[in-house]
Amino acid sequence: MFDVAAVGVAFANLLDPFTIIMLVAGILLGLVIGILPGLGPPIAIALALPFTFYMEAVPSLILLLAIYNAAIYGGSISAIAVGIPGTGAAIATVMDGHAMYKQGRGGEALGLSLTGSIIGGLVSVVCLTFIAPVLAQVAIKFGPREFLAISIFGLVVVVRVAGANLFKGLLVGGLGIFLTTWGLDELNGAERYTFGTYHLYEGIPLVPFLVGIFAVSEVLIGAEKALQRIDFDKTSLTVKIPGLKTLSKLKGNLARSSLLGTVIGIIPGEGAAVGAFFAYSEEKR
User: Fold this and answer.
1) Residue 119, class by beta-carbon neighbours within 10 Å (0-12 exposed, 13-18 middle, 19+ buried)?
2) From the CB of residue 109, how many other CB atoms can be counted at a distance below 10 Å?
3) What SS3 state is found at 101?
4) Mean pLDDT value of segment 19-42
5) Which end of the chain is more exposed for a tag (fewer CB within 10 A), N or C?
6) How many CA atoms lie within 13 A of 280 on its CB side?
7) How far is Cα 240 from Cα 247, in angstroms, rounded to an integer?
8) Average pLDDT, stretch 96-116?
9) pTM, two decimal places
């Protein structure tokens, strides 16, 4: 049940100077770590966690939450600027964000990404504040059948995003299913495609794998164009916050994506990457 008094206490805690310092520090650290491909929120939180042992509960939580959210957004900066997602959630950002950067609209892409992140975050916080108990009851009812349905739906999304390239979509989807079989079998502990190394016992890490895919392609493209002249004036990365007119045009997109991301985030085992890709698929349709 929604507790007005608890919300008041929370806002009062946010006004504490030390809490504000932790908030700013968390945002800065999260942005830096998120921009660097292959690191992401887990590494950022792991770096900050020892400092929270000697802090009060509220500043500690504020620091860790700020790091996580800022790192998620930071991943979109490298996705837009160099075509390499800093986090798994920025995979979908590469597709259109980097294309805008190449058109000299990098600042606009960063502004849209920032605005979307803020609005989506606020919507999810409001939902968490008012309906958290109900969401918790729904989440714990998810079992094998529900997860199987989500997996099948994910394959449908891959095919739909592929568009006219249906064969390529099916091929990539099949390859993805094959790669998820690597590691230790969860039922009997048998090793599958571990090649004798314990590094693959838990399967292929998602973020390093994706960074490798995008980074190698960008390196090859960069090597091909190394001798070409680059007009940096057209690829400015100064953040351009969209105006009210632009936001009015995108209100439906922002509402659908925010709600879809919130729903996907409620599901156990899913996360920002899945929510971002589902939202991108829906808007592309």
Assistant:
1) middle
2) 25
3) helix
4) 82
5) N
6) 23
7) 13
8) 81
9) 0.67
Residue labelled with tokens 């592929």: 162
pLDDT at 230: 47
C-alpha span between 184 and 206 (Å, rounded) = 16
Q: Summarize pLDDT for 79-105 with one digit per residue, the tens.
A: 888 777 777 777 778 777 878 887 877
Amino acid letter, 135 = L
CA distances from 43 to 31, 33, 49, 55, 165 (A): 12, 8, 10, 20, 36
Nearest to 25 by CA among 48, 49, 41: 48
Token readout for 71 is 């790192």
Interstrand relation of 191-192 and 183-184 (parallel, antiparallel or unpaired): antiparallel
Helix (H, G, I), strand (E, B) or coil at 181: coil
Q: How far apart are CA 74 and CA 78, in angstroms?
A: 7
Centre a 10 Å sphere on the Cβ of residue 162 and count the other Cβ atoms it contains.
16
Tokens matching residue 135: 């969401």
Torsion of CA 21, 27, 32, 36, to 10 degrees: 150
Whether 58 contacts 21, CB under 8 Å: no
Using alpha carbons only, what angle is made at residue 89 by residues 27 and 140, rounded to the nearest 5 degrees? 100
